[in-house]
Every structure is written in C-alpha cells, then in structure tokens.
Prior knowledge:
The protein is of the alpha/beta class. Helices cover 34% and strands 20% of the residues. The chain has helices at 16-24, 41-53, 81-88, 100-103, 123-126, 130-145, 157-169, 199-218, 222-234, and strands spanning 11-13, 30-35, 56-61, 94-96, 149-153, 175-179, 247-254, 268-278, 281-291. Strands 1-4-3-2-5-6 form a six-stranded parallel sheet, with helices on both faces. 38% of the residues are buried.
Amino acid sequence: MTETGSNRTTTVVRTKQHLRERRAAMDGTVAVVMTMGSLHEGHLMLIERARELADHVILTDFVNPLQFGPDEDFDAYPRDLEGDLAMVDGMVDLVFAPATDEMYPTLPPMVSVTAGEIATLYEGASRPGHFNGVATVVTKLLNLTTPDIAVFGRKDAQQLAIVQSLVNDLDLPVRIEPVDIQREPEGLARSSRNLFLSEEGRGHALGLSATIAAAREAAPSLSGVLRVLEQATSGTAPYSPRTAGLRFDYALALDPATLRLIAPDHRGPTLVMLAGWVDGTRLLDAAVVQTTEP
C-alpha cells in the first residue's frame, strides 16, 4: 500500500507469523483496533483515537465464526477487505486480515475462553455462546498483537464490559480505551449491520436512538428513565411514529459496573442498553446517563 502525507505506510499481513515479525519491529507504544471488517466512519474514529494514544496502530480485520450462533448467517456477514484497506491506507501501520483457518486450525478449537455468567444475560441470552466467541478471539488477538492499548467502541456495551473484565480477571497487560458511539446524521448508531436495512427499515431503526434521546432527557430522574424504557418496549412511546417496524428485544437500565439491573434506590451512572430487530437485522444502542433523583 502507498505512503500518505501522514508518513505512515500501511502493510497488510495474512498470517500470524508475519504479524509477529512486523510487531517485533515496532518501537514505542502500540494500539490495536479490532474489527470484523466492513469498515465505516465509526471504525475510523476508533483508529483516530488509537493514533492519538500510541506511536503505532494495528487494525485487525477478521469475521470471527465463533461469535455466530447456529441461526446466524456467518457467510452472509458483509465483507469488503479491498474497500477496508483503501479506507485505512496511511491511517494504520499494520492490517492483520487472516483467513479463518489461519486463526483456527481446528473448529471448534480444543481450548477456548468462557466469559462467565454475564455472557448468558441480555445479548448473551439471545445469542448463546456469542460472548465466549468474542472472549476467545479478543484473547487471541491481544496475544498476537501484544498492544499497550486496545480501543473499543461503547455501542456494544456488554461486549465492552466483558472485554474489560477479561483483561482485569486474567491480568492481561493492556489498557482498554472506550470510545463514544459514533452516529449517522439522523442519529442511528453506526454499524456494519446497517447495510442490511432498507430505506424504510432505517426509519424504523431510529426508534433506538430516539429512545436513547428520550432517556437522556428524562435524566436525572430514575423513574423517568425507567418510564421511557417501558414505553419503548410496550410500543407506547410518544416520540416516534415510525417504530412500528422495530421489535425491541430489551430496553434495560443497568449498573454500568456490574451490568446488573438497577435497584429502585440506585443513584449515579446508569447504563441504558437497547437491542431490537428491524428487517430481520439485530441492532444495538447504548448510553450512560446520570440518575441522581427518584
């Protein structure tokens, strides 16, 4: 790939051996941004944050089969490596884009990482085994890239919490740097899965960001935030007439430290975590609001 005005040359490697060789040649600090490809502006913001924090940036571009359930179409997940590489040329030092059999010589692997009870709740209840697959691939990629910093977005709030616990509980020598959700102009959280939405479906999907906005407006009242979430799941929310095509899976108020449902006397940061289906596509959104009043 070509060198740009940033004086940063982007190299693509497809094997673990080549990755280790390139990583060993890097001096200074290293940040990693892990993706499943099909990059968008949200990913670029993660890369920009990584560049602010470290001397070198590694991007991983790998669709991880372990985090797809039996009813989810791994083969249909959008892939555009050529487009991804054009998008990040000159922005990162190294792109690791392995084939599935390079990452997993045997499937399922004989040894994997389990994420514990929290992996069975919320998103994990709807996608059994998903977070164990995430924990396994994140552990492998951290071991392969040996970064000082790993940058993750806040949209997948449960994933972020599990990755933070993974690093803390296993004493992995890396700092996790969260980055706020990046949104499209209409408010929709940026996601590779947005490519699956029809134009009408995108309108329905705005019910997620509208719920987030309403929860922010209801804060600092805890009861107000809970009312917003109840209205969203019951279909009685007054703020968006276009949500008929949105089927909520959950709309929860959680303690961001434990991911447990908040108690009525909870005061302080509250994680609002949403998941729903539009056009057969599962979408997520999240925000932390301050609930300091009943």
